[in-house]
């Protein structure tokens, strides 16, 4: 309990402590969710000079931001009731929905509590969620009087730290314009696209990238398994791949992990498999055949069965080792 005061920067105390002049001079920015990605993104906003208030479910993760001069709120509602533009970066659809619409302390409760004379509030959800969750959150925000932008990202924590994220956006032009700018998306990323009028287009665009990523890394695993079985030097084959027309950062990084058998998580097997599952469900609804993705999905499922669900998705390579059983005893069948 009690109010939070920041010792080294009194002007960044809690929202109600700010002078009217300070409030009118620049938009108040909020940030919900300070995990690996969110902490880097919020730090970029502080670095850009944003007047920022942050919230995280476990308070310990707010301390580094408080040290940088951010105000710390106790609930999502406290952030959305006082801030003009609020960014959310939650771990999964369940967390995104709980923070946005879960009860009297939720983000939408805070938006609804803003007086009629307050400036319009914009809620920007950067979490990667399925279409249905995005639509539910967006509808709730708009019913409470706010503007909504779905803005899932492409990129990892290093991209977040250096402001190199890609934002795949879906929502109204007004919400998009409010979210952009030097104290918003432009501080956190270097490209952004408005892909359609709602969360569905943003979710689908993100899924397109995940289809490609899962298939490319699945194919790389297959190539690495064949490389080893063929008696070739893995490092040499990866070098050749890198110099060829197929060379890319993803294959270079994941190829090294496969060569070493080092699967410390960056993006986990279970998350990549979930994305392929969502993609295959969408393909089924749209009547599009996806045989290559279906085959890759089977190998990620195999890796999960092997207990590798929480490892980096490069661990799909291990799914091939499990299948190499000697069949010398089985009689050859003549066609």
- Quick one: overall form? elongated
Q: What is the number of beta strands? A: 9
User: Strand-residue fraction?
Assistant: 5-15%
Distance from first to last alpha carbon: 77 Å
Number of helices: 16
Could you list the spans in which at least 5 consecutive residues all have pLDDT below 50?
Answer: 1-24
Alpha-beta content class: alpha/beta
Write the layout of secondary structure elements.
Layout (H helix, E strand, L loop, with lengths): L19 H6 L2 E5 L3 H12 L3 E5 L7 H6 L2 E2 L3 H7 L2 E4 L4 H9 L5 H6 L9 E4 L5 H13 L3 E4 L2 E2 L2 H5 L3 E7 L1 H7 L5 H4 E6 L4 H31 L4 H10 L5 H12 L8 H18 L4 H15 L12 H4 L14
Parallel strand pairs: 1-2, 1-4, 2-3, 4-5, 5-6, 8-9
Antiparallel strand pairs: 6-8, 7-8
Describe the protein in words:
The longest helix has 31 residues, at 199-229. The chain has helices spanning 20-25, 36-47, 63-68, 76-82, 93-101, 107-112, 131-143, 157-161, 173-179, 185-188, 199-229, 234-243, 249-260, 269-286, 291-305, 318-321; strands at residues 28-32, 51-55, 71-72, 85-88, 122-125, 147-150, 153-154, 165-171, 189-194. Strands 1, 2, 3, 4, 5, 6, 7, 8 and 9 form a nine-stranded mixed β-sheet that branches. Helix 14 packs antiparallel against helix 15 (291-305). The protein is α/β, with parallel strands linked by helices. It is elongated and about 70 Å long. Helix 2 links the parallel strand 1 (28-32) and strand 2 (51-55). The protein is built from 16 helices and nine strands.
